[in-house]
């Protein structure tokens, strides 16, 4: 029984014999690297980079739901990219907003 399930996975249209399996598998590295930057100070984050990561994740997540065959690994990695990108953007925006507020208070 296990052998037949393994055979089915191997021969699946988005199985390990295709680029549809390996591209999103390696793309997880981007999401993991972005999540590793959660400990990085917000002033070191880049607006353009995080905006690109978030938008790429959102756009391609939508695409993953309309292509045939459906690629759930690709959907998962793109959702993770969108989530980590939006979280990093929110950290950067919050930091920049609170820094300006503290500076304005100091000037008064």
From TrEMBL:
Provide the primary localization.
mitochondrion
Is this entry keyworded Mitochondrion? yes
Functionally, this protein is described as follows: Mediates the uptake of pyruvate into mitochondria.
Q: Name one GO cellular component term.
A: mitochondrial inner membrane
Keywords, sorted A to Z: Membrane, Mitochondrion, Mitochondrion inner membrane, Transmembrane, Transmembrane helix, Transport
Protein family (similarity comment):
Belongs to the mitochondrial pyruvate carrier (MPC) (TC 2.A.105) family.
Q: Name one GO biological process term.
A: pyruvate import into mitochondria
Q: Where in the cell is it found?
A: Mitochondrion inner membrane
The superkingdom listed in its UniProt entry is Eukaryota
Q: What is this protein called?
A: Mitochondrial pyruvate carrier
Topology of this chain in the membrane: Multi-pass membrane protein
């Amino acid at each position: 029984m296990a052998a037949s399930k393994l055979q089915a996975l191997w021969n699946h249209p988005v199985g390990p014999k295709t680029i549809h399996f390996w591209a999103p598998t390696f793309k997880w590295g981007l999401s993991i690297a972005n999540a590793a930057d959660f400990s990085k100070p917000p002033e070191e984050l880049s607006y353009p980079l995080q905006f690109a990561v978030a938008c790429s994740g959102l756009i391609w997540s939508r695409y993953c739901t309309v292509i045939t065959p459906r690629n759930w690994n690709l959907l998962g990695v793109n959702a993770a990219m969108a989530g980590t990108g939006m979280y990093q953007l929110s950290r950067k925006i919050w930091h920049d907003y609170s820094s300006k507020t503290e500076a304005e208070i100091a000037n008064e």
